[in-house]
Amino acid sequence: MKQRNGSASQRQGSRTRLLAGVALFACLPLTLATAAQAQTSPATTPPSDQPGPDGLPPRAVYIEAGSATREGDVISALGDGERVLARFQSHTLRAGRVTYDMTSGAGTADDKVELTSPEGDTVYASHLELDSDLNAGVAVDFATRLSNGASLMAATAVRRSANVNELNYALFTPCPICDAEGNPKTPSISIQAEKVVQDEELRAILFRNALFRVGGVPVFWLPAFAVPDPTVERSSGFLVPSVNYDEGRGLSVEGPYLHVVSPSEDWLISPQFNTAVLPLLNLQWRRRFADASIVARGGYTYAQNFGDFDLDGDGDAESNVDFGDRTSRSYLLAHGRWDPAGPWRAGFTAERVSDKTLFDRYDVRDPYQDNGLYYGDQRRLISQLYAERQTARSYVSVAAFSIQSLRVDQFNPITPALNIFEDDNTLPVVAPLVDARWEPVERILGGRLRLKSSAVSLTRDAYVGAPVLRLPPMAAVPTITDGVDSRRLTFQTDWRRVIISPGGIRFEPFLDARADFYSVSDLPPVLSLEDTTITRGRVTAGIDVAYPLIKRLSATSDIVIEPLAQLSISNKPNLDPRIPIEDTQTFELDETSLFRVDRLPGYDVYEGGGRLTAGARATLRWDEGRTASLFIGRSVRSDEETAFRIPVPDAPARLYDPSGLASTTSDWVVQGSFAPTQGVRGWGHATLDSSGNVRRAEAAVDATWGRRNVAAVSYIVDRSNPQSGPLNRNYEFVQLAGQQFVYGNWGVAVTGIADLERDLITRSEVGLLFDDDCFRFEIGFRQDNTRVRPSGPSEGVYVRLNLATFGGTGYERDDRR
């Protein structure tokens, strides 16, 4: 597990290697090699010892020097123009002079001493000495550069005993101490201490007279403080707090404290204190077992609601108003996974919140996560139990789940306090949902055979109409409260074979057979029956054809053109209006779905009849990875499919086709991408109806220039709903994000989302930043006017801080094993 201050642990771990590692170079039997002579120490390596990566036996040291002398048991090596080179246990030592006492095992190094560890950390000193048991060691003018870029310096470094290391007049910085030209510069952040003591027995590092500097300027002093010893993988302590300002909460400070119970268990206590409203206590518990892990997050406050009413009638909801009685408000976000050796694994998620605006009001971090086998989309929480079994040729999963929605169903134009939320009772309880697949090893008629089955039971407590139920146009809304319940069982067989002709044409014949069994109850009277059983089947045969063609344009460029076609025929589909549409409510036609046998996702709606799909893809490649590609395709069917049309939300008597597949000709699919230079890339996708009007489109371009300047812009539009109004699905957004450094390490950062449909900036941030690769600080202003935010508009000041090797604001959650 790790938290966002994990880099501090890395820093402490590197420091341990340095304080102890300076003693490694001369405490073992020695092999000398000089320009004048070579001498082997009397000690021999046991035959069982294997040479290390450098080719040396584990207890041998190789030294290369201009000259070497021996007086009694003391061997001295001197550089002649170049420093002495010593190698041992994958370490490398350079110094002007090296001595080694073969009797005591003590060694010294003088004159520009440089010791490099296998990890790449380098120690510098003017004098280095220690004994064979590492019980005493001294480094004068000690300095080191860690592999992560941090630097540690001290007047002296002393190993007092086997458990105690000491640095005197020490300075630590995670930032560069030299500029690009190699000239010294003041580090952005540093800690200066009179003494730093590492006590391995106490498993702690103690600082005395510690002074924290920013840009060389003293900003904070502590007479003494302690941090855990690096031998402790994780330890209790405060993490970096987060600070921001919001109109509703006022000044908000969240100070997380990590309490480590054991190497496999910890608690994160993170209270949020606010100047305008009562605090919110956030808790997180994590526990790992041999084959499992559990993470549970929760929060609690006893407070009034706030920030919903338009008190002055200007159309903007006030953010600093409290209303209602004080009551308990809380949330729970938990998940666990059991993953033993073998094909089986299981898990759960438990996600619930007491009131539907709590996450927005208190700015709870990352409440919508994908932690289970199934996941709720944005602003929906899912609680589930699941188990799955997977082998090389088979897969089966069994799950059950329920959903809590935090979506607004009807926005109130006066005040968000009167918003009407989506009714959780209209969402189904799924228990169970079974999915299984199996492929035999043997080839069947030269092709691959796949057998699939699926079963599901859905139960609703409240009635919901379109698009779940396809009521006849102008039908009255049923005055019933019971929801429609359904059960489905599906069996499917899929066979496919690949044949490549001598001319390079790829033929892929396929055969697909499927049978569905439905049991539906609590249907509204307008559909004639309250309970019914429906069976249906479909058989599809067809062939995919592709013919890739390549032409070399020059020594560094070529073009690939690939015509694609699919011909398929099925029996007429049975799209009974009594079958609820549960898993095909959203669909987007694109290059990947255009050539599928089942272009519509799920099982409740499918295609039939004869279909011909054709398209072509062209790809241009030049100059070391620069590319541009374009795809255009379309499908033609034998008959119209009126069942694909659904009522317009604002005009139930009017039908429209959100899929683009209801007519005899589908929408045109146009998709492309380009990367003309090293720092620029983009892509785009659009569907156009038969008149050439854009139904949906999406495009994005991002660019980098200089070393740290970046920008990205994206555009998305949906015009599939022909009726205007607040309940249609049409939208049009432009999103922009970027950062530009103006002077040295100072720059500006901007993000924004514009709703072109409503002519409104829905979300924006503008901030000033400082970033020198070890210290990033941002301060700016943010505003959120998104319709998905049920608590109304929000604005305030944000502050973000990230320190190299110290961590950043907040923390990370890592539940991987």
Would you kindly provide a written description of the structure presented here, covering whatever features stand out?
By secondary structure, the chain is mostly beta strands. The chain contains 3 helices and 51 strands. It has a 31-stranded antiparallel β-sheet that branches. A hairpin with a 2-residue loop joins strand 40 and strand 41 (651-656). The chain is globular, with a radius of gyration of 34 Å.
Would you spell out the secondary-structure blueprint of this structure?
Blueprint: H1 6-21, E1 31-34, E2 38-40, E3 61-65, E4 67-71, E5 74-78, E6 84-88, E7 91-95, E8 97-101, E9 107-116, E10 122-130, E11 137-145, E12 151-159, E13 164-173, E14 189-199, E15 204-214, E16 217-228, E17 237-238, E18 242-246, E19 250-254, E20 257-262, E21 265-274, E22 280-288, E23 292-306, E24 322-338, E25 344-353, H2 358-361, E26 380-390, E27 394-405, E28 408-410, E29 420-421, E30 429-438, E31 448-459, E32 485-496, E33 499-500, E34 506-521, E35 532-546, E36 549-554, E37 557-570, H3 591-594, E38 610-622, E39 626-637, E40 646-648, E41 651-656, E42 668-677, E43 680-688, E44 694-705, E45 709-718, E46 731-743, E47 746-755, E48 760-771, E49 775-784, E50 794-803, E51 807-808
Parallel strand pairs: 1-3
Antiparallel strand pairs: 1-2, 3-6, 4-5, 5-8, 6-7, 7-9, 8-9, 9-10, 10-11, 11-12, 12-13, 13-14, 14-15, 15-16, 17-20, 18-19, 19-21, 20-21, 21-22, 22-23, 23-24, 24-25, 25-26, 26-27, 27-30, 28-29, 30-31, 31-32, 32-34, 33-34, 34-35, 35-37, 36-37, 37-38, 38-39, 39-42, 40-41, 42-43, 43-44, 44-45, ...
